Amino acid sequence: MRPLLTACLLLLFLSGCSPRVLTGQSDARTLELNAATSVAAIQPTMYGIFFEDINFAADGGLYAEMVKNRSFEFTLPKTGWLEPQTDQFSLNARSGKSDVIKTGQDQANVNFLRVTVKGPDYVLINEGFRGMGVKVGAEYDLTFDAAVGDGSISEARFELIDTAGSVLGATSVKLSGSDWKEYSGTLKSGGTAAKARLRISFQGTGVVDLDMISLFPRDTWKGRKKGLRKDLVQLLDDMDPGFLRFPGGCIVEGRTLARRYQWKKTVGPVAEREYLVNRWNTEFNHRPTPDYYQSFGLGFFEYFQLAEDMGAEPLPILSCGMACQFNTGELVPLDELDPYVQDALDLIEFANGDVSTPWGKVRRDMGHPEPFNLKYIGVGNEQWGPEYIERYKVFNDAIKEAYPDIVIVSGSGPFPDGEFFEYGMEQLTALGAELVDEHYYRSPEWFRENATRYDNYDRSGPKIFAGEYAAQSVAIASPDNKNNWNTALSEAAYMTGMERNADLVVMTSYAPLMAHADAWQWTPDMIWFNNLESYGTANYYVQKLYANHAGTDLLTITEGGQPLTGQRELYASAVKDAGKNEIYLKVANTGTSPQRLTINIKGAKPGATVTVLTMASDDLEAVNSFTAPTKLSPAESTVALQRNQLDVEVPSHAFVVYKLKL
């Protein structure tokens, strides 16, 4: 025996290894990817975005307005506005006062602030949404309405101040005339602060009336004045979403019918949109936010515009005449449902109607004469029981009569199983429903164990929209839920099952979408932000990997003729993108050991180099954060492919996408 071979065998014996482990891929699992046949078409809507105004996602978040309660319309109309109450309080009180004046009832923007200035030391301060985020060198556009009364007030000064009271940026605006006028100015910040505030003082004494005091960063999404926060929209746009579902969620329903979301009150001039208390303001004792209101500066027009910007299909959801059944469950009698149904018909006209129609004209007057090409509309959020089915049928009949090509999204209730779900699915199937929205907030284990959920669904029934889902690290609605790697990896494994059933599952979206780090109510959430920064969670990057590699055609990936659905903790799905001439193989290994795979590719001729995008961590509690925003994100590498055979090792606790160019 040769000395070198003897030494090698001795080393193997002493180390406890067997020669079989070192003989290449002999211990690998053998998979077969059939690229010759398209099993089903992948719908362009397969991976999308669900937006709800929860966790200060709209006002204080996506909508870039920095002034809270800009028109004094909160129930407590001076909420967010401060008159300093330090040791200078008595001086400020002697120098002036402010009073809210109410001009009318049951209409939008009924209040304004009457300021009486007696001396030079009087100031007003707006606290913003848990502060105002300002950046050094950035410019901020100020607008406000004012009318000068008795006295000599000639100027208003606006200052951005930090928590120590130091001025970061300022502008002075000349005032004149007793008629209401809109004034404007620009503040440029000389520093960066996450908790800045806006301070207002006056030149002269007397009375001045103020309303619609507004401050926006100039650098918004697409540079639109008074637009959306650029970094947050960029995170969404980077996902290349197939649809945008809006505006929720439970805010569609409202705790009561009077507090439901009414889309007609969210379009037209911003100053004429009626404020509404957000239904999440005091929903949870662990996170009460009584200052949570909706200004509707982000309204239905802006949602449609955002969907168009991202190339996503708009999917509005409307009240079906039922308040949230977890709250009052208030019902509109069936014989009084006509106004609710008309809202749905008018919305379709607003989105698609010619500019000669009443609601098409409203869209034109807002700057968008072209139609938004709405194809989908949702009736109700997650209602259940006979009351929902009765109301859904009324909506369905009316919409289909007027707009037979519109696809109606119905709901199967708040749970993925149980009495409510079974009843809803049975009834909706019998009614010929086209697209049923399923929701599931369950444990990571549930997601891994249910990767076969859709394998045996009746293909003659409705298509499925997985409209709200997220693995809960602790429990539903627990404030201790985390966006950790365990939840994200479990979702990745589950999503292989949705993708394998793309003939049935045609829309999917994680929920909720985003949360303000200082003003959240619900966890977990896909994107986190504060007043200056934002980051995607591990769950975000899993969603993005799927959405960026959605493909056009479903392929089969099997082991021994069977799909990979969690056997020995391995999950897999595969798709082809006919336009890009690429194959995307997605593999999730939820086990504690790496897995070696030999993947034989049939019916295609891929190139010699495969791009590999890997997310992996053996720390299942690991999370992304403001200090480590991409800790859990895809790492790119390459691997060689020889004679249509891909030999790879999938790390433990990993989600990997393999991109094969044909």
TrEMBL record:
Which of UniProt's keywords are assigned here? Glycoprotein, Hydrolase, Signal
Single GO molecular function? alpha-L-arabinofuranosidase activity
Q: Describe the reaction catalysed, as an equation.
A: Hydrolysis of terminal non-reducing alpha-L-arabinofuranoside residues in alpha-L-arabinosides
Instruction: Tell me if 4Fe-4S is a UniProt keyword of this record.
Output: no
Q: What PROSITE patterns would the database entry show?
A: PROKAR_LIPOPROTEIN
Q: Which GO terms describe its biological process?
A: L-arabinose metabolic process
Signal sequence, start to end: 1-23
What EC numbers are recorded for this enzyme?
3.2.1.55
Where the record annotates domain Alpha-L-arabinofuranosidase C-terminal, the positions are: 467-654
- Specify the enzyme's EC class, one word: hydrolase
Q: Which domain of life is it from?
A: Bacteria
Q: Which family does it belong to?
A: Belongs to the glycosyl hydrolase 51 family.
The protein in question is named: non-reducing end alpha-L-arabinofuranosidase
**Which organism does this record belong to?**
Neolewinella marina
